[in-house]
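Each field is listed here:
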Amino acid sequence: MSLVTALIYRRRHRLLGRLVQEALAFYGMEVPAACEIGPGLTVFHRGFGTVLHPYTTLGAGVTLYNGVTIGRADPWVPQERSAMRRVVVEDGAVLCAGAKVVCKDGVLTVGAGTVVGANAVLTRSTGRGEVWAGVPARKVGVREGGWAPSPAAAEPGSGYPGPDRPGSDRPAAGYPGSA
C-alpha cells in the first residue's frame, strides 16, 4: 500500500484526521472524510490533482490515476439546492489520468469494472465493464477478457460498508445495488 493510499484510509482518524488531510493536500489531493472508500484502492502517481466530492462512494478495488475529479456539474448552485445526490464508482472501476466524473442530477454510477479514459468527461451513468472516452464521454467499447468483481468486495469483515453491510455512518442510498 502506498503512502498516499494509507493516508486516504486514515483521513477519518479521530486525533490525526486534520493532519492527514493536510498531508494529502501536500500531495495535491482532496479526499473529504465524508467519502466512502472500499478496500483495495489503488492511487497511481500519488494522485496529484485528484479531487473527490464529499458525496462520493468508491467500491472495492477502484483505481485512480492523477488529476481525477469527481464532483457536481452545477457548482454555481448552493450544495443544499443541487439535484446531485451522489457519485458511486463501483468495484474494479478505473478512472484514468485527468478523467472528470460530474453529476448534475440524482445518482451517477460508474459501473463495476468500467474504464473512464484519460481526460474524458463523464456526465452519465455507465454499465458494467464498459470503456468510456471523449468529451463528453461516450461508450467506445467493452473491457476485454471479461470482468469479475474483486473478491475483496465480498469478504466479510473487509471494512467496506457496502449496501448490505452495517457500519456506514451515511445512509445506504446510492451504494452499488441499493434501491
In short: Confidence is low (pLDDT under 50) at residues 153-179. DSSP finds three helices and 14 strands in the chain.
